[in-house]
Amino acid sequence: MMIERTLTGLRGQHIPPARAKELGQLGYMQWLGALPGHSSYEYEAVRAYLDVAMYIRTDPAVAEFCFLICESLRFPLQPLDLGMPKPRRRGGARERRQQV
């Protein structure tokens, strides 16, 4: 199931709010791109939300992902505020080791 892969990428409690927003947006775009073309968006969105809702309070990126799903269902004809992260150095392997 695609939502499990997306959820794995979103989970991480020790990230700054700006990074959580970036990850939530990337996760939403990944999930959206993996939807089958013949599926019902509303059905899949509700299903994805229910699958990850238990992590909203503990994982800020999951909360952003869920916010985007809710906004897309609430205002289906309005564009979402999505964007790719700005390219920047994130510290490399040393920084990743310190985050664990």
TrEMBL record:
It comes from the Bacteria. This is Uncharacterized protein. It comes from Thalassococcus lentus.
